[in-house]
Q: What sequence folds into this?
């Protein structure tokens, strides 16, 4: 009886590990099908009691690896732009731009997972799959978020991603009007407007 229990335990662990490995592989392969895309997005932020905190919308351009242009239109306009090396965070209302290293500033963020799609990043998460829905839980406690949920089709289109933070905030981003065509490198370079204060933190 004890021997049978051990066999069952080992088999269960093997199957569980295999399922997790398949989920990781499936997510990686799906994201690899599209290396550049444009999308309009809608944002909804709620607290842990499901109270609405913020609605937003904007545009996103991605060219892997590490190039992206995140343009938040509502409720307050701002830009987060990366050319693969530098990261610009620009707030027009304040006429201020902060310049950082892209690698250091996005490596522990959910956005990093989508714009890089590196196996070395994915292995830091426990990943479960249910159809097109992938649930990611960080293995390390030094992340600010508790869980990430990504909805991605077999063809590699990211339809939605949700970030559940440790403080209870839930941020949902729904991606629409997607276009999968090569994007000009100009879209990932920020030209500082006249009269803008520059805070360089490289």
A:
């Amino acid at each position: 009886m004890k021997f049978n229990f051990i066999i069952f335990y080992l088999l269960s662990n093997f199957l569980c590990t295999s399922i997790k490995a398949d989920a990781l592989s499936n997510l990686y392969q799906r994201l690899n099908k599209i290396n550049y895309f444009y999308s309009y997005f809608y944002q909804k932020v709620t607290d842990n009691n499901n109270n609405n905190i913020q609605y937003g919308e904007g545009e996103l351009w991605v060219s892997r690896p590490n190039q992206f242009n995140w343009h938040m239109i509502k409720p307050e306009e701002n830009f987060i732009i990366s050319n693969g090396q530098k990261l610009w965070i620009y707030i027009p209302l304040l006429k201020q731009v902060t310049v950082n290293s892209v690698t250091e500033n996005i490596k522990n963020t959910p956005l990093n997972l989508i714009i890089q799609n590196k196996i070395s990043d994915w292995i830091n998460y426990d990943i479960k799959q249910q159809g097109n829905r992938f649930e990611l839980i960080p293995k390390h406690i030094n992340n600010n978020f508790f869980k990430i949920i990504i909805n991605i089709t077999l063809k590699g289109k990211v339809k939605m991603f949700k970030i559940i933070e440790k403080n209870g905030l839930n941020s949902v981003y729904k991606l629409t009007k997607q276009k999968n065509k090569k994007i000009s490198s100009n879209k990932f370079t920020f030209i500082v407007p006249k009269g803008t204060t520059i805070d360089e933190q490289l």
Remarks:
- The mean pLDDT is 85.
- The helical segments are 2-31, 102-106, 110-116, 119-122.
- The chain has four helices and twelve strands.
- The CA atoms of residues 27 and 170 lie 22 Å apart.
